[in-house]
Amino acid sequence: MKNVAILGASGYTGAELIRLLAGHPSIRIGALSANSKAGRPIEKVFPHLDHLDLPELVKIEEIDLSALDLVFCALPHRTSQSVIKDFPRDLKVVDLSADFRLRDPAEYERWYGTQHLAPEVQPEAVYGLTEVYRDEISKARLVAGTGCNAMCGLFVLRPLVAAGVADPDDLILDLKCGPTGAGRSATERLLYAELAEGASAYGYGGTHRHLGEFDQELSLAAGRDVRIRFTPHLVPMNRGILATAYVKGDAREVRNALEAAYEGERFVHVMPEGLPSTMSVRGSNLCKIGVAEDRVPGRALVVGALDNLAKGSSGQAIQNANLMLGLPEEAGLEVVPVFP
Ligand SMILES: NC(=O)C1=CN([C@@H]2O[C@H](COP(=O)(O)OP(=O)(O)OC[C@H]3O[C@@H](n4cnc5c(N)ncnc54)[C@H](OP(=O)(O)O)[C@@H]3O)[C@@H](O)[C@H]2O)C=CC1
Ligand SMILES: CC(=O)N[C@@H](CCC(=O)OP(=O)(O)O)C(=O)O
């Protein structure tokens, strides 16, 4: 059995890590941390977990790091950097925050508007897009989980620019996501009364910080600078991301490139026909992708769906931890989507 800690266990991704790890055959949860909720039994914070035998929520500094094989860091941006920089340099870490996603600390400063607190640790980090960086992840000490929007968009767009089947200067990504993507500390825009019957764009006009991840990963895949047009929308569904890409390219070539990229992949599926719905992936570690011809000749539509709390963060984190710990990649993750 591998012994792990979850830091930030009283948040949404922390709860999802607990849910998925409860069914993991080779990982046990040795410690859970919280901040304001430290000292409370986990069932007082998450009543749906009251039947599990789990450790109490404690402050991070109370955890014995030497007893751990790996740490999941589900902490806010910046808190993660300040905690991870003081960890022993041989402790394996899967960080779910944005703190180590961008290879260049100057890019971090550009998108997050604050100085990187651990630039000396950054070179060790491997970007957590498992299906692309599997080999590096299995040898890594520190894996930086992707943004959930970025992951869905990259699954759709990356193979197209890598194979040269879509014009890299003409990529539009229109994305919908639910409020759990913003974490558990609700702000005004996430109040039920203001969200439940409406939808709105946010982070538009090239301002969303996941553009740093898109720029980095799509430019690496294309071997030249790629800048997409990206607009996320907040919609009333608890979990889920639906990413619709409009691309200039032949639909058959687009499909072939996606099928080649994900052939044999356990968790990323290209649908033989039709387009995916968030309901087809909810609660699972799956990403489903569909392709359709546009009515304008030479243009195609590609749609990806994943669960932001599963494949978009905690499921992805467990998949990467499995690789880092030498466990079967799919261990604990064979969860069928919850429907309806
Ligand atoms: N939600 C999502 O879909 C995704 C989230 N992520 C990233 O994962 C990380 C966690 O996200 P999420 O679970 O949604 O966030 P939440 O806001 O739901 O949870 C945050 C957790 O961090 C703890 N925490 C907050 N401040 C501190 C602090 N100063 N010191 C120690 N612990 C602290 C909180 O404890 P307490 O409750 O006691 O205050 C809580 O356990 C974030 O970096 C987020 O950006 C990445 C991809 C997707
Ligand atoms: C609804 C909402 O606000 N969603 C978040 C998704 C956050 C995410 O993917 O995680 P990171 O914060 O770790 O980048 C957003 O678009 O910023």
TrEMBL record:
SUPFAM superfamilies xrefs: Glyceraldehyde-3-phosphate dehydrogenase-like, C-terminal domain, NAD(P)-binding Rossmann-fold domains
Xref: Gene3D superfamilies: Dihydrodipicolinate Reductase, domain 2, NAD(P)-binding Rossmann-like Domain
Localization per Swiss-Prot or TrEMBL: Cytoplasm
Bilayer-crossing regions: none
InterPro entries to which the protein is assigned, alphabetical: AGPR, AGPR_dimerisation_dom, AGPR_type-1, NAD(P)-bd_dom_sf, Semialdehyde_DH_NAD-bd
Keywords: Amino-acid biosynthesis, Arginine biosynthesis, Cytoplasm, NADP, Oxidoreductase
Source superkingdom: Bacteria
Known catalytic reactions: N-acetyl-L-glutamate 5-semialdehyde + phosphate + NADP(+) = N-acetyl-L-glutamyl 5-phosphate + NADPH + H(+)
Keyword Lipoprotein: no
Active site: 148
GO biological process: L-arginine biosynthetic process
This enzyme's EC code(s): 1.2.1.38
Pathway where this protein functions: Amino-acid biosynthesis; L-arginine biosynthesis; N(2)-acetyl-L-ornithine from L-glutamate: step 3/4
All copies of domain Semialdehyde dehydrogenase NAD-binding, residue ranges: 3-140
SMART domains: Semialdhyde_dh (SM00859)
Record has Cytoplasm as a keyword: yes
GO cellular component, one term: cytoplasm
Top enzyme category: oxidoreductase
Pfam families cross-referenced by the UniProt entry: Semialdhyde_dh, Semialdhyde_dhC_1
Family: Belongs to the NAGSA dehydrogenase family. Type 1 subfamily.
Function: Catalyzes the NADPH-dependent reduction of N-acetyl-5-glutamyl phosphate to yield N-acetyl-L-glutamate 5-semialdehyde.
NCBIfam families: argC
Protein name: N-acetyl-gamma-glutamyl-phosphate reductase
Organism expressing this protein natively: Hasllibacter halocynthiae
Designated gene of the protein: argC
